[in-house]
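Bit of a strange request maybe. I'm writing a small parser for structure token strings and I need a real example to test against, not something I typed by hand. Could someone generate the tokens for this chain?
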Amino acid sequence: MAEKLLQKLEEKMMFLISEIEGLRQEVQRLRHENMSFKQAKEQDEKEQAQQVQRIAEMIQMIDTVNVVEINPNAANLMAGAKPVLLEEAVQSAG
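Reply from user aminoacidic:
Good idea to test on real output. This should exercise your parser:
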């Protein structure tokens, strides 16, 4: 009778060891997955910060541009101006 109890105890121990090993592997897999998510999150945050910086630089550039009101008389002067082509500029220079 004691031998049967020892055998059942041994089977139960083997079952528990197997369960523990499965849980250990699951924890290891989840830790690895968690690490991957953290790295992806850090990369996304870094990219977002770079994009925010670029947008801030563009806004700053736009803010530095002065808007000039066009004088109607000046607009009429420009209407009669002839655009200079690159070929014409090279020919007249040469």
